[in-house]
Amino acid sequence: VQQVARDANRLFALSLAAEGTATIGGNLATNAGGVSVLRYGMARDQCLGLEVVTADGDVWDGLRGLRKDNTGYDLRDLFIGSEGTLGIITAAVLRLHPLPTARTVALVAVAGPRQAMELFAIARSTSSATLTAFELLNATSVEMVVHSHDGFRLPFANPVTPPWTVLFELSDGSAAIEAILQQGVDAGLIIDATIARSESDAQRFWMIRESISDAQAAAGPTIKHDISVPVSRVAAFIDDAEQAVRRAHPDVRFVVFGHAGDGNIHENFSPIAGGDHDVFRGKLDDLNRIVHDVVRTHHGSISAEHGLGVLRRDEADRYRSPVERTLMRVIKTALDPNGILNPHKVLPDSR
Amino acid sequence: VQQVARDANRLFALSLAAEGTATIGGNLATNAGGVSVLRYGMARDQCLGLEVVTADGDVWDGLRGLRKDNTGYDLRDLFIGSEGTLGIITAAVLRLHPLPTARTVALVAVAGPRQAMELFAIARSTSSATLTAFELLNATSVEMVVHSHDGFRLPFANPVTPPWTVLFELSDGSAAIEAILQQGVDAGLIIDATIARSESDAQRFWMIRESISDAQAAAGPTIKHDISVPVSRVAAFIDDAEQAVRRAHPDVRFVVFGHAGDGNIHENFSPIAGGDHDVFRGKLDDLNRIVHDVVRTHHGSISAEHGLGVLRRDEADRYRSPVERTLMRVIKTALDPNGILNPHKVLPDSR
Question: Cβ of B300 and A66 within 8 Å?
Answer without folding.
Answer: yes
